[in-house]
Amino acid sequence: MGAPQQDGQSGQGHRGINRRTLLIGGAAAVAGTVVLARDELGRLWWRMPGVVKKRKEGEVDAPGVQWIAASDYNWRRADRPDDYEIDRVVIHVVQGGYQTALRVFKDPGHGAAAHYVVRKDGHIAQMIRELDVAFHAGNRSWNERSIGIEHEGFVDKKSSFTGPMYAASARLTAGICRRYDIPVDREHIVGHVEVPGTDHTDPGPYWDWDRYLRLVREERDKPAKPTGSASPSEKA
């Protein structure tokens, strides 16, 4: 049974959409389209001729990290945080070694990569600039709003997560939180497993969140260090 007619036109069936309703609805649709188009244009301004931002090859966003470029097919150029607000850090675990992560993130057929990869000894590679969108979370909106940090190791091996790894990763995350004014808590620093729609389980049960957040807060409260640039050919 359908809803009762409210326009006093008994017997008119579904002809009850009048010209005023169409005009109002049409105007609203046009207005919504204009807003969406303006929003999208605001995010794509850098693609216009003459306004492409200059980028220095090998430039990094955090001090002491090594630049190793991911395949262009595993990330999308952007202008964050101007076009997409950055308000999350996503913690990943490779399920393999450091070199494995580098290899697959450089593979154009892989279709995914994180911004950073952290080795067991604390060495960090940056593979995608923070201003760009990395395909790391398996969720488009989360990719656009977050920075992904991959860690060498396995989710089911507690020994994967070493002191130097925790310390280096915490310094990295603290710097990210300072740059984008991200709160240091479990709502804004999350595991891949917590991303909506994901089928991943990392960082797993042995990742020590209490220890990690304590280290991040300690690093965040230290005086900020200036960023530097590492050569793409720098060897660890």
What can you tell me about this protein's structure?
With 236 residues, the protein is α/β, with parallel strands linked by helices. 29% of the residues lie in helices and 11% in strands. The chain has 5 helices and 8 strands. The strands form 2 sheets. The chain has a 6-stranded mixed sheet, sandwiched between helices. Strands 2-6 form a two-stranded antiparallel ribbon. A hairpin with a 5-residue loop joins strand 4 and strand 5. Helix 4 packs across helix 5. The N terminus and C terminus are likely disordered.
Secondary structure layout:
Elements: H1 19-43, E1 66-67, E2 75-76, E3 88-93, H2 98-105, E4 116-118, E5 124-126, E6 133-134, H3 140-145, E7 146-151, H4 163-180, E8 189-191, H5 209-220
Parallel strand pairs: 1-5, 3-7, 3-8, 4-7
Antiparallel strand pairs: 2-6, 4-5
Helix pairs in contact: 4-5
Note the beta-strand portion.
5-15%
Distance between the termini: 72 Å
What does the overall shape look like? globular
Radius of gyration, in Å, reads 23 Å
Helix content: 25-40%
Structural class: alpha/beta
Oligomer: single chain
Q: Care to give the gist of this entry?
A:
The chain is an alpha/beta fold and 236 residues long. 29% of the residues lie in helices and 11% in strands.
